[in-house]
Amino acid sequence: xxxxxxxxxxxxxxxxxxxxxxxxxxxxxxxxxxxxxxxxxxxxxxxxxxxxxxxxxxxxxxxxxxxxxxxxxxxxxxxxxxxxxxxxxxxxxxxxxxxxxxxxxxxxxxxxxxxxxxxxxxxxxxxxxxxxxxxxxxxxxxxxxxxxxxxxxxxxxxxxxxxxxxxxxxxxxxxxxxxxxxxxxxxxxxxxxxxxxxxxxxxxxxxxxxxxxxxxxxxxxxxxxxxxxxxxxxxxxxxxxxxxxxxxxxxxxxxxxxxxxxxxxxxxxxxxxxxxxxxxxxxxxxxxxxxxxxxxxxxxxxxxxxxxxxxxxxxxxxxxxxxxxxxxxxxxxxxxxxxxxxxxxxxxxxxxxxxxxxxxxxxxxxxxxxxxxxxxxxxxxxxxxxxxxxxxxxxxxxxxxxxxxxxxxxxxxxxxxxxxxxxxxxxxxxxxxxxxxxxxxxxxxxxxxxxxxxxxxxxxxxxxxxxxxxxxxxxxxxxxxxxxxxxxxxxxxxxxxxxxxxxxxxxxxxxxxxxxxxxxxxxxxxxxxxxxxxxxxxxxxxxxxxxxxxxxxxxxxxxxxxxxxxxxxxxxxxxxxxxxxxxxxxxxxxxxxxxxxxxxxxxxxxxxxxxxxxxxxxxxxxxxxxxxxxxxxxxxxxxxxxxxxxxxxxxxxxxxxxxxxxxxxxxxxxxxxxxxxxxxxxxxxxxxxxxxxxxxxxxxxxxxxxxxxxxxxxxxxxxxxxxxxxxxxxxxxxxxxxxxxxxxxxxxxxxxxxxxxxxxxxxxxxxxxxxxxxxxxxxxxxxxxxxxxxxxxxxxxxxxxxxxxxxx
Length: 808
Known about the structure:
The protein is of the alpha+beta class. The termini are far apart.
């Protein structure tokens, strides 16, 4: 006791350390510590941060419609929008993940997962996952999991409504408009209820072009996808900017959403952008998101826009012109051209363009220099005619299907994408056994294990009880013989059919775009991990993951699904093992393929064109072409092939015609002047798209030719749902009307490399292939790509967009 007092005195009256546990004596301390340790597992969970939860009333597949339903297509990417709400604690980034499980077009289940971003306490956050719906009746299972895969909320089921009145499923011939920033009800009214031709005010009973016009909207920037392929099911985006609130959101939008919209347009998307009263703010936004080759200078007010009325209304006398309109003063760049000019007025005699067309990579942008979502345009009686005119300019032509056409690999029936898929899944080295032989084999099997077995045992051995031995022996022998026969016929080699389409845009800043389709024929039951990487810099791309201009994601890989209702998607698969998409759809893990069966995949990538000044090699194609001052129909200059492969059957598309340049070996240059001499034949565009079938025609040549310039074929073409961004027919046709009709100052070069068929690894290393497949591992998982086994057939097609210089 005296010792304790002395310690207290030396410590200024404080209790000694052994008395710190509530005055417990030293013998009681071990018991207390043991009790405290036992209580830790009970107390710790109570102190853990509460997980977020999915708001069940706010989740959808695809983009929102007026009926608050989603809009999505089968077989193409669609966003899965989910609202997550945090509890009383902050949610740290990547501590949870959102997982969507559904089935593909062959009824095989797959997963797509995204990490959950940081969410402040007691707040909500919209999170996007992405899926490729396989069929109308597909079920989507939404799971919220910890980073280690443990569920933190009961999985939620979501299905799309396929009913005809409020269908959430967009048909192959339907056109989907996504309005961003405003709902634009007048657009919906004008296109869903078109007037009968030549009968003013009378509504037609059927929609135009053989397909319905569908509409979805996004009014808040947070509702825009953060991956470019989230827009894949959309045909036209209409971006309205009269709302100050929405424009401020545009200026504050995340880099991921800016890049997603820009990248989708660059890859062939179609955009209508209107700018009027908020011209200064939109100009700042376009500096970050260069969607059009224009400069927004200022804004002025025009007393009337009679030219808009003449452009959109067939009989201007029946309508009042658009009056007192605030317009943006737009300076077009080299890749932009005015379709409509404002009338000269007062002290400003300049005719500012008010409807312009501009290229953005492979995409097409129509810029309207006044607000489409605010008065006076929103109250103008000529508004329906304007929307119909705009629809005719920018929307894809879907056409109607001729049901009398025969079905087959070369038949013009059904989806063009399905023709491409059928061609890829045809392996000439793997014979198809006809049903007649199969039926004959079945009859022989029935006779062998039935009557023949009975007669031999009864007449020869006279012991019918031996059937307990002979019957299983015969079954085993016939099964082994059937397997051996199939093994002999089908082979034991992996076989790959692969097609690449490479678009090289020489307009600044140059870009290289790639689309790849490949089919695996599996000689055994196996799960395949599949990825793809571009070959750079041999094919012109600057492939640097640290480069700010590198594509995000660098490569998208997915299964290629059937878009026709009679091509699977509703049956139950025998292989229920779930496969998984890698991060940002950069590859696929463990895709099951049955024995002697096929699976088809698609991939997309983009890379900046290697800078000519800093490059250690020349550009992939060197082209310096000039338009003759005396005759715009004549070009001069030379084209040099710097690709690592020969280009064959090169066609130059210029001013509505095409000219056969021939073949170019690597390093070879060719003067184009002889093509434009008087005695050289000018070919019509359809002669290239429909060259006629010959035995040497490659399996993908016809459908791919039609896809590359789809809208040239008129109203009876096959639909190209999901592949409409490949269509570049607008570049080779006349644009505008009257005095504003023009061709682009551009040549489109189209050719292909020699087809190759050999051992897979040998073809992969050949210069004809612009991409390399990764199987068993994904790119980046290990330093070296695993060597491919089996055989590969490679076809490569090239489109090059060459800007022209006018001679002075």
